[in-house]
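Please, does this match?
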Amino acid sequence: MAIRVLTFFILLTLSVASLADLTPLNDSELSAATGQAFLQLDRSNNSEGLDFTKVTFGLDVETSLNADLVELGNYTRNGSSGADVRIRDFALGSINGDGSINPFRIVDPFIELAFDEDNGKQNVVGVRVGFGGAAGQLSGTIESLTGNINVEIRDTAAGLANADNGLADLTAALLGSSPIETNAVLVDSSGARNNIRATQVGIPNGDTFDIVPDSGLDRFTLSIAAGLGIGGLNCVESGFFSCSRAQIVASGCEAAGIDVCFDLNTYNTLDVGVPQGNGSFGLASGLFVSFQSQSVRWVDDGKTTNTVSGAFINVPNGGLQVNLTQALLGTDRVRTKMLDPYYD
């Protein structure tokens, strides 16, 4: 299965090469041309004694892709059957009502192998397909996920009113315009961090919602609300009758009675990329799919990602951003086909 999936991703990254128009350049055009090689080969090692060989393709790819099922690592794990990664109705990119395509963009795709030396012989212990940058819409019903999918939740306190909780409604009414921010990761049903065959994403135990008032009046109001314990607020940065930052601590998938763990299968479309502030997304680095027979630490631009054995998908921190309504209720699926049974 791993070989078939690897072949699929290799074909995805290389298929655009056949579309290129090869045109000869004269000497003057060649002297004026600058750029990087189509193929770049890098070798490295780490403190665990693993050697790495990485082949990067200097491509800029725009694609629209649909698959009924993406299933990676289907085997018995810790006594339980299932798949490390299982996403139904998977798609990259979207389609507008007039038939025009909003492609998923990939730059500098690469293939990397990890080797472990045993009695002078090097054995492959890991392989991954990744992208130097990626941006676009990813759709699907995520039933199981092993990897990292860090979600930034950015909203105002008014978004708390979407929770069915009286204290949250009061907090929202008092501090409606104040920014609220937190990060969600893969968790289990008790709120503990769990990135192996996860079915939920949420605010892990001990992490917080941070409320940052944007005016003097809101800082004064937040100081009073935190002093009274409204909505579970706790002021962590304060002055004289002024609170510049307050927090609500998550525990057991709740924060002041608000549910803070969410089913992955309600996120039907996710925006992948770095938010630009105008509704668009720039390229995010660190997106990859890997397969390894043991724990492997993959490195991208000096940043290490620890993976576990089996199939693994890494979505970089900050690559996904939702507001509180989307976090609580999920996100609707965009159109991914002209005749799309999943789109109303």
In short: The helical segments are 2-14, 27-32, 166-174, 216-228, 324-329. The longest strand covers residues 121-144. The radius of gyration is 23 Å. The chain has two domains: 2-14+39-146+266-316, 150-259.
